[in-house]
Amino acid sequence: PLVLGIESSCDETGVGIVRGHTLLADAVASSMEQHAPYGGVVPEIASRAHLESIVPMIELACERASVKLHDVDAIAVTSGPGLAGALMVGVGAAKALAFALDKPIYGVNHLAGHVAVDQLEHGALPEPTLALLVSGGHSNLLRVNDISSDIVSLGATIDDAAGEAYDKVARLLGLSYPGGPVIDAAAASGNSVAIDFPRGLTSRKDLERHRFDFSFSGLKTAVARWVEARQRAGEDVPINDVAASFQEAVVDVLTRKAIDACVESGIEHLVISGGVAANSRLRVLAEERASAKGIELRVPKRSLCTDNGAMIAALGSEIVARGHGPSSLDFPADSSQPVGTVVSSPLG
Ligand code: ATP
Ligand code: MG
Ligand code: FE
């Protein structure tokens, strides 16, 4: 099927067009620079930017794919989770399109989209697959039995998301937003064993209750304390060593828990996606640890890891291909849509 996907859950306005597992177009506008002065996404600014970009991105995607809106078989749109006001822009636009063109509409789960996008690059996802989703707003370990209908959460962050930790630590080191790419770069010339930062939720006691959960706020505080102590002593802060040691603590826990989850559940395929999957150290360490256990690792290219419309089109395409019914036209934008709800308000 030819599916147009719309994404507007956070600060990217994305429109993608796919046919089956083939990516035809991916148009993305980001309001990231407008949020930079605030050190994080400002919801009102994001919503307004979506309003300005949504129609141009739909037009650009159609142009790049050389398709007319009337040729599209179905429309998919992120219904949640995400920022309520931001989601509403995409959902409203998608409903208007579906109504005007008389096409079926699928309100779909953003997190499932992050996983489904891998099919555009590496073909059909094996079933089951384990997915580690790490972005600015999420850190989840998912068991994907069927990407169109059966996703189970094994664990999630109990405080900050991994990307959020990068952004906050960058801020306290005086680096720019978003923090991921700058810390990644600084860490490249730093010593990752210079400082022994805490690995959240890995003690024996914590593992009993939080086997596959994550926690990054204690790590962020530990970095802040360490930096403050240096400054109080009137010493220079070795930014590259702090960045490398912080990064090692994050990716050590992420990869350790993801691989443990694969081993414990006998799953031989791991997908890592979301903005933090762009991290160079995460990609290297995950590959090392996966291959040591005979696990096949799939990581989409960087542009498909961050928020985009192609991931929503990819998920919609899979849902249509598997014969699931569309959403009823009154489905809501659900800022806290659970990962188990792949399609909102399905008509059956
Ligand atoms: P959501 O959480 O809803 O999926 P988002 O916009 O917050 O959406 P993404 O766009 O997927 O998330 O990712 C952005 C996050 O990824 C930011 O926190 C950013 O710092 C982080 N990031 C980007 N590149 C890197 C990198 N090389 N290393 C580590 N983190 C990175
Ligand atoms: Mg983003
Ligand atoms: Fe996302």
TrEMBL record:
Gene3D superfamilies assigned to the protein according to its UniProt record, in alphabetical order: 3.30.420.40
Identify the residues that bind Fe cation: 110, 114, 307
What does the entry comment about cofactor binding? Binds 1 Fe(2+) ion per subunit.
Co-factor requirement: Fe(2+)
Q: What class of enzyme is it?
A: transferase
Primary localization: cytoplasm
Q: Which SUPFAM superfamilies match?
A: Actin-like ATPase domain
Give a GO biological-process term: tRNA threonylcarbamoyladenosine modification
Enumerate the residues binding substrate.
133-137, 167, 180, 184, 279
Segments carrying the region annotation (Disordered) are 328-348
Membrane-traversing stretches: none
Compartment list: Cytoplasm
Q: Which UniProt keywords apply?
A: Acyltransferase, Cytoplasm, Iron, Metal-binding, Transferase, tRNA processing
List compositional bias (Polar residues) regions by residue number.
334-348
Carries keyword Endoplasmic reticulum? no
GO CC term (a single one):
cytoplasm
Domain of life of the organism encoding this protein: Bacteria
Pfam families per record: TsaD
Q: What is its EC number?
A: 2.3.1.234
Which Gene Ontology molecular-function terms are recorded? iron ion binding; tRNA N(6)-L-threonylcarbamoyladenine synthase activity
Q: Where is the Gcp-like domain?
A: 23-313
Q: Which reaction(s) does its UniProt entry say it catalyses?
A: L-threonylcarbamoyladenylate + adenosine(37) in tRNA = N(6)-L-threonylcarbamoyladenosine(37) in tRNA + AMP + H(+)
Protein family (similarity comment): Belongs to the KAE1 / TsaD family.
Q: What does this protein do?
A: Required for the formation of a threonylcarbamoyl group on adenosine at position 37 (t(6)A37) in tRNAs that read codons beginning with adenine. Is involved in the transfer of the threonylcarbamoyl moiety of threonylcarbamoyl-AMP (TC-AMP) to the N6 group of A37, together with TsaE and TsaB. TsaD likely plays a direct catalytic role in this reaction.
Protein name according to UniProt: tRNA N6-adenosine threonylcarbamoyltransferase
Organism of origin: Nocardioides daedukensis
GN (gene name): tsaD
